[in-house]
């Protein structure tokens, strides 16, 4: 499987006279895990949608492995991209196996690859007999693991994740985030994850992109971000850092 490199050049987006994205230039290396943070309305999800060509009217360029996505058909582009949403989007009247194998049906095949489904269930640390269950029988964490497995089914080089763990309780969220990071490393993926949880971003990502008012105001490893003197960056990273210090103090005093 090839690993994707992403380059954004002067990426901008405007809707109804409102500027959503403003001249974003950045490069994401092959195999990198990037988290995107920022306040609501900062442009995080719009950035993902532009990369995945779900927004047709942006300006600037989006290149994946040097190819301008504007020149690719949706089928060509999506073949190499896995997309995971917060609301999961599993089909309620199809089994877990059918949900995971849905990319086969979208590609025009009559059946999914059962061996691939079994492999992905094991990869996501789900029992094999879960293949026969339906989404209503799953916990929130299990359903989200199935959604990630479905995104991985076609062996994409690039994974785009939009608040994938946002609806989960903190313990499940942390466990699933760590499990996904492990899968990312083992499969050699390039991952871009939007999250409102700054602590999650700092814990999981190789680099963190900070969005503010449609602009990319910082793009750095977590340790560098934690030392930033930019006021907008500090407003995001200081609260989880204070919480972490408070928890360490509690542990030290125990």
Automatic annotation (TrEMBL):
The keyword 4Fe-4S does not apply. One of its GO terms (molecular function) is ATP hydrolysis activity. Pfam families: ABC_tran (PF00005). Residues 6-238 form the ABC transporter domain. Keywords: ATP-binding, Nucleotide-binding, Transport. Coiled coil: none annotated. PROSITE patterns: ABC_TRANSPORTER_1, ABC_TRANSPORTER_2. SUPFAM superfamilies: P-loop containing nucleoside triphosphate hydrolases. This is ABC transporter domain-containing protein. It comes from Croceicoccus marinus. The lineage of its organism: Bacteria, Pseudomonadati, Pseudomonadota, Alphaproteobacteria, Sphingomonadales.
């Amino acid at each position: 499987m090839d690993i994707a490199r992403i380059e954004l050049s002067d990426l901008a987006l405007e809707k109804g006279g409102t500027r959503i994205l403003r001249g974003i230039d950045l490069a994401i290396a092959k195999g990198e895990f990037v988290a995107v943070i920022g306040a609501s309305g900062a442009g995080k999800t719009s950035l993902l949608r532009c990369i995945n060509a779900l927004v047709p009217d942006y300006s600037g360029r989006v290149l994946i492995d040097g190819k301008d996505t504007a020149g690719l058909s949706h089928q060509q582009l999506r073949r190499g991209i896995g997309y995971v949403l917060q609301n999961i989007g599993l089909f309620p009247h199809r089994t877990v196996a059918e949900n995971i194998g849905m990319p086969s049906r979208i590609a025009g095949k009559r059946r999914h690859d059962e061996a691939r489904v079994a492999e992905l269930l094991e990869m996501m640390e789900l029992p094999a007999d879960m293949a026969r269950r339906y989404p209503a029988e799953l916990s929130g964490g299990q359903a989200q693991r199935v959604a990630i497995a479905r995104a991985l089914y076609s062996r994409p080089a690039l994974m785009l994740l939009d608040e994938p763990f946002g609806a989960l309780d903190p313990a499940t969220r942390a466990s699933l985030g760590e499990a996904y990071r492990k899968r990312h490393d083992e499969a050699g993926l390039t991952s871009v994850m939007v999250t409102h949880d700054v602590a999650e971003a700092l814990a999981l990502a190789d680099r963190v992109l900070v969005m503010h008012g449609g602009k990319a105001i910082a793009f750095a490893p977590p340790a560098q971000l934690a030392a930033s003197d930019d006021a907008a960056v500090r407003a995001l990273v200081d609260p989880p850092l204070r919480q972490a210090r408070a928890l360490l103090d509690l542990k030290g005093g125990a």
